[in-house]
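User: Assemble these into one structure.

Assistant: Restating your components, then the assembled model:
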Amino acid sequence: MVSHEKIEFAGAKVGEALAIHGNRAERRPKRRRASAHDRIPLPRDRRTPPFLLYISYTWRVPRTTNAPIVSVDGDRLMASLMNLARIGEIDGGGCARLALTEEDRAGRDLVLGWMHELGLEVTVDVIGNVIGTWNVGVGAPVMTGSHIDTVRTGGKYDGNLGVLAGLEVIRTCQQAGLVPTRPLAVAFFTNEEGSRFAPDMMGSLVYAGGMSTETALDVVGIDGARVGDELERIGYNGASPCPGIAPHAFVELHIEQGPVLEQEGITIGAVTGVQGISWRELVLRGQSNHAGTTPMSLRRDPGYVAAEVTAFLRRLAREMGGHQVCTVGRVEFHPNLVNVVPASVAMTLDVRNTDEALLVAAENAITAEVERLCAAEHVEASWRRLTRFEPVVFDRAVIDLVAGVAREQGHSVMELPSGAGHDAQMIARMCPTAMIFVQSHRGISHNPAEHTDRDDLIAGADVLLHVMLRLAGLDPSGNRASGDSDGTTR
Ligand code: GLV
Ligand code: MN
Ligand code: MN
């Protein structure tokens, strides 16, 4: 467990100092002042999704007069999102920029150009993470960022919002003449999605020291390409070492990618953490044979076992309830022909839970069921671990800061955990970290139809702006920066 130094945030309204120990922030005696707006109960006539079990409190505040004194330029933010979305554009308005492909390279070049236009000091590290730093003030930077790679059927906002809003924060500060007492940095991390190369969040994991650079560079993707070769091919095999510099604090803006905020009519999510993720590849091998002549009793059919495994995952998730989710996202039959009992099937299992013990129990139940099915069908199974991350709890002080800033701006706020993986969960190993969520229309993501209303995107960026300024010792709404007192350099 990493022990973080004590930090304080600017702004008396939300910035009471908390003692922080790694990811588990210890609350001193409760000090959030109650207001008339707090804790107005939600209507309960809707079906409550399981994620709401983890929501600890909700504020509904009328959105009227609390516009921040300094705001991002919404048109400019939208224009940058749309410009990036044109790279790798696919039918339905989405993007395909799988990590380290030509499309990813073109997206990287565009964003890197914008970093240079802002006068940022840009570094590319050994795993291809790109960090643009506005070198003002002293000490370790307040960092934001996310990713610009997408799944093959991705939307415009997943990851991209967090990166481009970060640049918009710096643009806004520069134009408003706001100079924080610490550097501000915006990162885009390599291969967050993990669709081509596992694990997901690879760049931020290596940045945080959770995986060696050599291991990451040697990962071979679903198309047989090697990370190190692809980084070199697209010209992003940088020289900055990993693990990288620990930021003073990290905050990531992201679309929720789930339905909760929209269903509850809440504008801003203060994200409490990220659920644990288990990805495994299962290869089943049987006896390939003629589909017409092979009696059912003599078959060793891995296709049948794959189907039973898929159905078992659904049953298991339903029976466990709560936060348990299970997905079979990729199934490849070989030789994949209409009249041939398959020789082998390769399939992926994505299993997640906010509770580590339950996640382990789910993994064990699946392994046992696969053994049982394979024994009965005389099929052989081999497993390959692709990803395993325990649930992450974000920093209580940064979560409170996000919620407090959002409330000050007149937004309704709720705390919620993230169902998706994020770079913030890796950077949380290095420094106090949290995330800001904005609504996802109908909870749809990893789909070209992914949509977030313009007002919500801008609201999220404005919350990010003021959270970063507070973390960097500046409170433009009250001017004086009381927090970030020590200017500690790390
Ligand atoms: C990353 O997008 C994930 O699969 O959660
Ligand atoms: Mn993402
Ligand atoms: Mn994603």
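Residues 1-65, 479-490 have pLDDT under 50 and may be disordered.
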